[in-house]
Amino acid sequence: MKNSNPISKGFSTFKRERVDNYKGSLVSTSMETYKEEEDHEAVNLGRSLIVPSVQELAKLPLTKIPLRYVRQYHHHPLSDDTTPSVPIIDLRNLLAAASGSSTYSSELNKLHTASKQWGFFQVINHGVSESLLEDFKREVLNFFKLPMEEKQKLWQEEDNHEGFGQLFVVSEEQKLDWSDMFYVTTLPHDLHRSQLFQKLPLILREKLEAYSKEMKKLAMGILGQMAKALEMDGDEMRELFHDGVQSIRMNYYPTCPEPELALGFSPHSDADALTILYQLNQTEGLRIRKDGKWVAIKPLPNALVVNIGDIMEIVSNGVYKSIEHQATVNSNNERFSVATFYSSNMGTELGPARSLVAKHKVANFRRVPLEKYFKGFFAQKLNGKSYLDFMKLQENVT
Ligand SMILES: O=C(O)CCC(=O)C(=O)O
């Protein structure tokens, strides 16, 4: 069933019994009971309650934000100038230099250290053409500028979270982020929700397809280098990821009249293996948690931000770390970003790489079917790194 208008829809109009039914279905997909159940939704990995458009809200002459967006402040301190900034990896030194050269070894070592200690790095000389980045950016900006009547046709539906809206909203009481997003599964093609794809503006669809292809190439290139750095069997890495699940999330953070009270994106770690983030404009907002402080990641021209997700932490048997991050908002500048999430192949089992378990002589995480893992992730409110705890084998927790 199609939703009612997301702007005029009040927070309380969602029927109570529907919420309760919904919660019931979440319990049955919880990660604690990996029981096989009849699956009528092979490609439906999640849903989220429908919430109003923040872009429309931000057009109103507000001096205060509605209570549902006000956070209780708790914040970890911000880093100061003594905190180093996130490492920068020159991919040309990895993908084009001879593998025995000192340039290659020192860049591989930087990648390994960044993935272990930061879980985040920026990549330069990544090989994605500037013209594609520019074209895609223009179309994403135009997409968010579409009139609301057009966007409504692309809004999330009650039974599936792809489209415009917010993710991870599981109750009417939950605090909301000061942002709108558009979420879509892009690869493999048979996971496309074709009814959504067909409604996208043609030019955006073309650029999205081209961008998605480049992001897969980039993710596979980085994963190959990570296999070398981890001393993991390269064939095992390729086997796990060659037909991986990719989804893309376009984020729009409008200016906010009370930025110190709101969050653009709640603290979370990503469920995937590798995320590649394109910060479309030069507005800062991304913060990562490092040694108990929030460190800002400054947008660098022509760089992409890469981060380790929970799947990579699991596959690497805990060597690489997926790091909590969040997005802040500000009163002067709107912000746009696009996150591309890359995960292992659907239909596979998620768990530590067998070649690493043999090397480490211990498995630090359990094994579960990938689809169950995703359904459990999307069924809950974002809460830092808590979802990864489901996967840890208690006796080996680090
Ligand atoms: O916009 C950002 O900087 C953060 C986005 C993000 O964390 C996400 O889309 O998962």
Structural write-up:
- With 398 residues, this protein is of the alpha+beta class.
- The protein has 13 helices and 14 strands.
- The strands form 3 sheets. The protein has an 8-stranded mixed beta sheet with strand order 1-2-10-7-12-5-4-3.
- Helix 5 packs across helix 8 (202-230).
- The chain binds 2-oxoglutaric acid.
- Residues 249, 251, 265, 270, 277, 285-286, 325, 327, 337, 339 line the site of 2-oxoglutaric acid.
- 2-oxoglutaric acid (AKG) is lined by residues 249, 251, 265, 270, 277, 285-286, 325, 327, 337, 339.
Summarize the structure.
The chain is of the alpha+beta class and 398 residues long. Helix content is 32%, strand content 18%.
Give the topology, please.
Blueprint: H1 16-28, H2 54-57, E1 88-90, H3 91-95, H4 102-117, E2 120-124, H5 130-144, H6 148-152, E3 163-165, E4 180-187, H7 194-197, H8 202-230, H9 234-241, E5 244-253, E6 265-268, E7 274-279, E8 286-290, E9 293-296, E10 304-308, H10 310-315, E11 325-327, E12 335-345, E13 349-350, H11 354-360, E14 368-369, H12 370-378, H13 386-391
Parallel strand pairs: 1-2
Antiparallel strand pairs: 2-10, 3-4, 4-5, 5-12, 6-11, 7-10, 7-12, 8-9, 8-11, 13-14
Helix pairs in contact: 4-8, 5-8, 8-9
The structure holds 2-oxoglutaric acid (AKG).
